[in-house]
């Protein structure tokens, strides 16, 4: 089959790889009808994720048609149309039973590697390095889905691929980011990053009753899409973010702040961003946490900082003094996607949201490598790429 494979920093290729096979009786194989490139894939593309190997198939936002099921899988049958969560979860362990699917303690066969980095291991993920399981990803013609009787959700009649594909990751992630904020009517929610995840966080904050959303980015078409959803926008290259949020909140700060940027914050945004970039290049640090610092400073006393932008390692100069003295709450996670699937599928069915609003580029798999660059460089108005193998 054809698949997108990683060959080092900035080097994605579309090439032939062996077809996946059923390896366990609970597996299923799906024929991919649509898959997407995520901001998290850019961390791999940019060479920031350890334990990647040449030829790894990447991709974790995938849907398609079931073409084969293992003998113990009683949930799926050949022909079912399903969306596959990016988190691989057994459904039975301590964490899965509590709904913390992305903390599954069984699905990462390489958990000892992850434990060296993080103390304990999270769940295995599709197409996301060997320390997270070494599973082949879904930017491919076919995908093997482990624990396929737990993860995939069937698509109701009448919904298109483009309406449901983002249930695999970015819609639940944006929704979780907003849910973490425990939104009360009239609340002002500030959101850093108007990429695909930020866009879903903005719309989810309104769905959950936010009074106002302040959206921060610098890319004109991304700010325009945020504005179209009803957000007040701030261009961080033109305005002082802290002062502008204070102006809008009577000097108090935002009720909750969402970081939907993560470790690859724009290096030219501020002095500390530049310093972060230098430290990472010189191997004196692992991450560039400018947005997290700013989100803490901009949050009102006893407010919430909600983190969905991904960080990898040890973050330098985080203003914990500000956080503890002012009573901030921190919430963060790799999204336990399975937990959100039924709720969000229902919102789509009811017409409360049509997730396809975020798509700007549609192409065959072969154009994937070029579109990784377009998406990373935010060229050609690119906000979200969908590939149709
Ligand atoms: N927690 C999860 O489960 C989960 C799931 C999916 C994605 N993510 C993470 O969410 C983040 C966003 O993903 P995406 O697909 O939207 O990526 P993206 O790269 O398209 O979007 C990031 C946006 O942040 C903006 N930005 C950069 N520096 C900024 C700054 N200083 N202030 C404000 N905005 C700034 C960029 O212009 C860009 O529009 C990534 O870190 C990704 O890894 C997490
Ligand atoms: Zn993702
Ligand atoms: Zn589990």
Care to describe what's here?
- The protein is of the alpha/beta class and 389 residues long.
- It has helices at 39-45, 94-97, 111-118, 161-164, 170-179, 196-207, 220-228, 241-248, 271-281, 290-298, 320-325, 337-349, 368-376, and strands at 2-6, 12-16, 28-37, 56-57, 61-69, 81-84, 87-88, 124-125, 142-145, 153-154, 188-192, 212-217, 232-235, 254-259, 299-307, 329-332, 361-363, 385-387.
- Strands 3, 5, 6, 9, 10, 17 and 18 form a seven-stranded mixed β-sheet that branches. Strands 13-12-11-14-15-16 form a six-stranded parallel β-sheet, sandwiched between helices.
- Helix 5 (170-179) packs across helix 6 and helix 5 (170-179) packs across helix 12.
- It is globular and about 60 Å long.
- It binds nicotinamide-adenine-dinucleotide and zinc ion (2 copies).
Taking all residues together, what is the mean pLDDT? 97
Strand content: 15-25%
- Low-pLDDT stretches: none
Alpha-beta classification = alpha/beta
Bin the helical content: 25-40%
The distinct ligands, each listed once, are:
nicotinamide-adenine-dinucleotide, zinc ion
Q: Report how far apart the termini are.
A: 10 Å
Number of helices: 13
Radius of gyration: 20 Å
Oligomeric form of this entry? single chain
* Overall geometric form: globular
Number of strands: 18
């Amino acid at each position: 089959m054809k698949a997108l494979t990683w060959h080092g920093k900035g080097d994605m290729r579309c090439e032939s790889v062996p077809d996946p096979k059923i390896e366990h009786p609970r597996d299923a194989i799906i024929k991919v009808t649509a898959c997407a490139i995520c901001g998290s894939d850019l961390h791999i593309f940019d060479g920031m994720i350890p334990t990647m190997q040449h030829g790894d198939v990447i991709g974790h936002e995938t849907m398609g048609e079931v073409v084969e099921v293992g003998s113990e899988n009683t949930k799926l049958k050949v022909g079912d149309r399903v969306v596959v969560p990016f988190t691989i979860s057994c459904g039975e362990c301590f964490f899965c039973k509590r709904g913390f699917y992305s903390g599954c303690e069984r699905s990462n066969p390489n958990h000892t590697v992850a434990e060296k980095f993080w103390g304990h291991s999270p769940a295995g993920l599709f197409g996301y390095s060997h320390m997270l399981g070494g599973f082949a990803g879904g930017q491919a013609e076919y995908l093997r889905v482990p624990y396929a009787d737990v993860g995939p959700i069937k698509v109701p009649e009448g919904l298109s691929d483009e309406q449901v594909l983002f249930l695999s990751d970015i819609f639940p992630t944006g929704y979780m980011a907003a849910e973490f904020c425990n939104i009360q009517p009239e609340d002002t929610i500030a959101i850093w990053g108007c990429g695909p995840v930020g866009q879903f966080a903005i719309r989810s904050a309104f769905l959950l009753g936010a009074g106002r959303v302040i959206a921060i980015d610098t890319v004109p078409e991304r700010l325009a899409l945020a504005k179209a959803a009803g957000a007040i926008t701030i261009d961080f290259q033109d305005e002082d973010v802290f002062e502008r949020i204070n102006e809008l909140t009577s000097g108090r700060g935002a009720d909750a702040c969402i970081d939907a940027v993560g470790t690859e914050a724009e290096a030219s945004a501020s002095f500390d961003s530049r310093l972060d970039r230098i430290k990472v290049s010189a191997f004196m640090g692992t991450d560039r946490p400018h947005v997290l610092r700013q989100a803490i400073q901009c949050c009102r006393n006893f407010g919430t900082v909600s983190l969905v932008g991904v960080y990898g390692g040890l973050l330098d100069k985080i203003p914990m003094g500000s956080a503890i003295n002012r009573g901030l709450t921190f919430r963060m996670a790799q999204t336990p996607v399975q937990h959100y699937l039924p709720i969000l599928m229902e919102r789509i069915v009811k017409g409360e949201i049509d997730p396809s609003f975020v798509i700007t580029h549609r192409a065959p798999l072969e154009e994937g490598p070029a579109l990784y660059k377009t998406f990373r460089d935010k060229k050609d108005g690119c906000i979200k790429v969908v590939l149709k193998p």
